[in-house]
Specification:
Layout (H helix, E strand, L loop, with lengths): L2 E10 L4 E9 L4 E8 L3 H16 L7 H10 L7 H22 L3 H4 L10 E6 L9 H13 L4 E4 L11 H18 L4 E5 L6 H11 L6 E3 L7 H8 L6 E3 L10 H6 L4 E2 L9 H13 L3 E2 L7 H12 L7 E3 L12 E2 L8 E3 L9 E2 L1 H4 L31
Helix pairs in contact: 1-3, 2-3, 5-6, 7-8
Length: 393
Amino acid sequence: MRITGISTHVVGTPWRNLTYVQVHTDEGLTGVGETRMLGHTDALLGYLREAEANHIAGSDPFAVEDLVRRMKYGDYGRAGEIVMSGIACVETACWDIKGKALGVPVWQLLGGRADAADNRVKAYANGWYTVERTPEAFHKAAREVVERGYLALKLDPFGTGNFELDHAETLRSLSLVEAVRDAVGPEVELLLEMHGRFSPATAIRLARELEPFAPSWLEEPVPPENLKALAKVAAKTSLPIATGERIHDRIEFRELFESQAADIIQPDLGHLGGIGEMRKLAATAETHYVLVAPHNVGGSVLTAASLQLAGCTPNFKILEHFNDFADAQIKKVVKGAPQVVDGYFTLSDEPGLGVEFDAEAAAEFPQQQAHFDLWAEDWHKRDGRAGKAANGQ
């Protein structure tokens, strides 16, 4: 079997463009992969056009390791977010082809279920708090999440916080967390996102004030570039620290593991090179007693791919899910899209990723000038308008 070529499809919303890559073969089998780029979708498409000619066309889709190695190192330049995201789409599609050809789900090819007695994967909701930034609105929105059966949810309550958070904004942010905890009760997991906003001193202060609400983790409390700053925060709080969505090469996690600054890593399968690279990273994390909770802000193909990893990973904690709350209509572009029932996904037994991309449905959502600015007023509404007015758009 040989790859004859690829086709790319962009599904657009005001705040995110989702790129789907179909890999076609001379035996009629087609696989699909997905990633979500922020502000670099056209760059990704350009890279994939070149990679198709230089590396992909004519390759054996079963020889995933060889193809990844050539795409990552065969152009000599150091692979960054765009290249690793392109690799992830193609690599994931090859696993999909391999599973379909052999008649088994990808998780079966990766060693089988880590817990043979349980085929569920816990989910947490994100993108649910697209409401006014008041305790009353957040309380109501959080109640709706748990009424849908979710047992965990995440939020960033910190507005436009950047390095510092003044007293008034601190009180406002804490009131939002208090309202959400009151809405969901003590048994639902509450995950707190900081989006790399703060200085270590501010993050440490906020961590202390957030402890009464028992969050399961603090995510990216400081900007991701300085791991010593992260270690400083970790040393001053008992709350678990999560990070990793903006690291795009598993080798770059080495220093994070050595520092023992993170309790949970959050690699994005769509940016890290795909399923095989994530599997290797998860195994390394296990040797450092670190849990894995992938960043997952894509659509249903990326979710399905992340679930393949979840099924065979002993140190897998939980999987993020946006698509019940933000742009729920885009689920129609994937047949067999994974669903959350009573707080859990169920591992599919269907071959490959267990889903099929619908190009005709995708055409209903053309690429947009998607915009997402975390430091703009009302960014959390995810309507694509935050930050554009300030830039004259």
